[in-house]
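Batch job 17 of 40 flagged for manual review because the log was empty.
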Amino acid sequence: MSTQQDTGSLEILREPAHRVDARGLPCPQPLLAMRRALRQVEPGTLLHVLATDPASQRDFRSFAELSGVALLRAECRGGEFHYWMRRPQAEPPEGSSHQTAR
């Protein structure tokens, strides 16, 4: 049985994406792999991240909320979690998810 959270259209599935395979990595490694990929790809590039760690669901949603990088789609298929995010045209501030107001 497949569960989905559709935060975008199915069109995103047809678009070429830079794949980040984080299957088998424990928390927080899938999130770190995605962040590393975001810094390495060109602005506007679509990322498709695969993970098997259930905690990645919470991590990716929190990252999207705190960083402003949109989580375009999230799915769980056969025990694998799939996330689609696009590197923004303007860089989010480095460490934006860890900054505190003073």
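Reviewer: the log was empty due to a logging misconfiguration, but the result itself is present. The chain is about 25% helix and 25% strand. Unflagging and moving on to job 18.
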